[in-house]
Amino acid sequence: MRREHLIKHHLVRIRLGDRIDYTIPSSATYGTPTTPLEYPEPLPANGDRTPSPKSPFNYRGTLVANNNAPQMLTFESSVERNATLILQTNHDIVELQTQQPTLPYRDADGEYHTHTFDLCARLKDGRKIGIAAKPILKLIETDLVGTLLRIKQQGMNGLLDDVSFVTEKFASDDAAYNAKEILLSRRLRNEDEYRIALDLLKGIRGPVTFRALFVGAEVPAHRRTALWCLIDDGFLRPAAPGRIEDTTLMIVTL
């Protein structure tokens, strides 16, 4: 699927008149971050359980958190992986953990069980939210909403302040793609490039394609990064939900 998307993107750029040079540059050109990049060794995952690295049924893997202290985050489905990326772009969330906490609860028959949350988000105000990330069909089949309500009603052992859930409608592949670009732009943010792009937006009236905002830039890749930073800061948004590509119509919100 990704290969087909790359081919489609390539053909669109050719139709738009882009001259594509596949020469490998002698130095990195994608970003010139104001703050030099550091690559500290990430802390190991600290969840209550560690998914096995392989499964014939589920999509599994690890990510590195975009926190001040990078930490490994584990996932065992595409919904969990996408949600982990998307939630890290939320400015109200200061820390995201995976596979925790594990809380006991009683079912309708009074029997005890435990549930391990896929994600735990700590907000700026200090509250902690336990989040289940599941495909909507599994959510329905397992009555997971009922389980979450029971956990909340039975006290949450003081480990959480609230519970929630996300499905593939929120944690879509397109939203995860946008989230990855935002997270990358935070690392590559250049304040001079940001100010240039911000000044450009001040002269925009009405919808404009994403591509039009970096065509003519001295280094288009640097302008792209600045534009994603502006999207992250809420000054630029797509006119309709979906993956942000060169032909996407954008709205300036200054």
Would you write up a description of this structure?
- The chain is of the alpha+beta class.
- Helices cover about 30% and strands about 20% of the residues.
- The chain is built from seven helices and eleven strands.
- The strands form four sheets. Strands 3-6-7-8 form a four-stranded mixed sheet. Strands 9-11-10 form a three-stranded antiparallel sheet. Strands 1-2 form a two-stranded antiparallel sheet.
- α2 runs parallel beside α5, α5 packs across α7 and α6 packs across α7.
Give the gist of this structure:
With 254 residues, the protein is of the alpha+beta class. The protein contains seven helices and eleven strands. A hairpin with a 4-residue loop joins strand 6 and strand 7.
Protein traits:
elongated, 254 residues, alpha+beta, 7 helices
Helix and strand topology:
Layout: H1 2-15, E1 61-64, E2 72-75, H2 78-87, E3 93-98, E4 102-106, E5 112-116, E6 119-123, E7 128-133, H3 136-141, H4 144-153, E8 162-166, H5 173-188, H6 191-202, E9 208-209, H7 220-232, E10 236-238, E11 249-252
Parallel strand pairs: 7-8
Antiparallel strand pairs: 1-2, 3-6, 4-5, 6-7, 9-11, 10-11
Low-confidence stretches: none
Distance between the termini: 36 Å
Q: What percentage of residues falls in helices of 4 or more residues?
A: 25-40%
Which structural class do the helices and strands define?
A: alpha+beta
Quaternary assembly: single chain
Mean pLDDT: 89
Q: Bin the strand percentage.
A: 15-25%
Provide the succession of SSEs.
Answer: HEEHEEEEEHHEHHEHEE
